[in-house]
Amino acid sequence: MARNAGKDWVPAVRNSGKFVKHVVPAAVKPLHTLWHEVLGFIFLAIAGMVAFNMWRESATLSPLKFIVMAIFAVVTAGYGISSVIKAKRISRS
């Protein structure tokens, strides 16, 4: 009886494998796009906050601190923009 019980599961396992092969790729693509969109938003928000602080405190910042903050803002904004572009590229494919 125990031998026959295992044979009952074989068709269900085959069908579940087919289900996973069809459903998982369809679910991963939107999640991948959403991941890049969220990361892009976070990095653009951080770059915006740094730029706002630079503008607000521009009179009191030392030149070195201003340069470091500007480089950080540019790099962060660049990563945010590239992440949003990548999300659009993923959603089109």
Strand percentage, roughly?
Answer: under 5%
Give the overall silhouette: rod-shaped
Mean pLDDT: 88
Helix content bin: over 70%
In DSSP terms, counting alpha (H) and pi (I) runs of 4 or more, how many helices?
Answer: 3
Can you count the beta strands? 0
From the N-terminal CA to the C-terminal CA, the straight-line distance is 50 Å
Order of helices and strands: HHH
If you compute it from the alpha carbons, what radius of gyration comes out, rounded to the nearest whole angstrom?
25 Å
The low-confidence runs, each spanning 5 or more residues with pLDDT under 50, are none
Structural class: mainly alpha
What does the largest sheet look like? none
Notable characteristics:
single chain; 93 residues; mainly alpha; 3 helices; 0% strand
Detailed description of the structure:
With 93 residues, the protein is mostly helical. The chain is rod-shaped and about 80 Å long. The N and C termini lie far apart (50 Å). Helices cover 89% and strands 0% of the residues.
Topology:
Layout: H1 2-7, H2 10-56, H3 63-92
Helix pairs in contact: 2-3
Short summary:
This protein has three helices and no strands. The protein has 93 residues and is mostly helical.
